[in-house]
């Protein structure tokens, strides 16, 4: 197999794993919203790839627990799952494809969870109609409390910096020669850059069929780029740090190169998942 063909297969495999990782992240976020609100006595209305709608909660939404959890539980779940997967990355010697999948899923969960704190801490408005993010709504329930807002900004910023650190450090498990800039670029672009660009474009297009886009294209054009482009910016900076900007690690922590062989079964699974997203999950499932 030629080097060009090996690199092409490595990129395609990472793209496929990126699609699967996104489907292990965004739907989990929305399902957490749905389940939490059902526990609050709400009636489920609709569940989609990027939204969960319920009506008529019976729990006391004025209690501290529900003020936080009713809209805030999904981001917290992303963070919990992200840290569990990070432990898996650190404690288990995973194979070449499973390690890439766990790494991508870890970064996506942490990016989504901490991203809500950071974005909503910045974008919060006293006007409830302007607050589209989960934790903007939580902050609104606390009257825009300045201490909570500052805490969200601090936690969100530190969390995103953690994503950058994970991307940088974990990439070197796939690099044989830390000082070989071409290898660093080849690996980091396959694992981080191409999945980031692909998912940002493809999932934004797929979500044009979502309830949010149908209800308000203006809201969609705000929410989707924030999640798919800015929300996952750790992938871009992970690539930049590894390939170009930060001095490579001194210690060699190489495990395996990312899989550079033809993986037709993986490609079929990713294509089927993407088709399911476009045809079922993005339009969503109605309950009433």
Write the layout of secondary structure elements.
Layout: H1 3-23, H2 26-39, E1 43-48, E2 51-55, H3 64-91, H4 96-123, H5 134-141, H6 146-171, H7 181-206, H8 211-215, H9 217-230, H10 233-245, H11 264-281, E3 285-286
Antiparallel strand pairs: 1-2, 1-3
Q: Would you summarize the structure shown here?
A:
The protein is mainly alpha-helical. Helix content is 70%, strand content 5%.
Account of the protein in words:
- The protein is mainly alpha-helical and 288 residues long.
- It has 11 helices and 3 strands; from the N terminus they run ααββαααααααααβ.
- It has helices at residues 3-23, 26-39, 64-91, 96-123, 134-141, 146-171, 181-206, 211-215, 217-230, 233-245, 264-281, and strands at residues 43-48, 51-55, 285-286.
- Strands 2-1-3 form a 3-stranded antiparallel sheet, covered by helices on one side.
- The N and C termini lie far apart (54 Å).
- The mean pLDDT is 91.
